[in-house]
Design brief:
Length: 113
């Protein structure tokens, strides 16, 4: 059974940084596209960033130049480095395999002074 556990969220001031982690078990992510999503209060979940098995990345326009998705296949883990955080980045962040219906608990990111 595939399990993805997100961690690393927290409260940070505008302009600050956080690094999210997504630890996978029950599957080997080496050959999979992996993605980070977020859901802000009252809004639909949106795709933030994705990374292919070969390391190619894509980002939603609002985070380009600020967020970096990466993967460590040896650790079966995906990361999201978030810099220059803004209040509008406040959301619950989830990682997932695109197309997979089941979601984990996510990790809360709050950007506030």
């Amino acid at each position: 059974q595939v399990r993805l556990v997100e961690s690393g969220g927290g409260l940070v001031q505008p302009g600050g940084s956080l690094r999210l982690s997504c630890a996978a078990s029950g599957t080997i992510i080496r050959f999979l596209v992996m993605a980070w999503y977020r859901q802000a209060p009252g809004k639909q979940r949106e795709l933030v960033a994705s990374i292919t098995s070969g390391g190619s990345t894509n980002y939603v326009d609002s985070v380009k130049g600020r967020f970096t998705i990466s993967r460590d296949n040896a650790k079966n883990t995906v990361y999201l480095q978030m810099n220059s955080l803004k209040a509008e980045d406040t959301a619950v962040y989830y990682c997932n395999i695109p197309g997979r219906d089941s979601w984990g608990q996510g990790t809360q990111v709050t950007v506030s002074s």
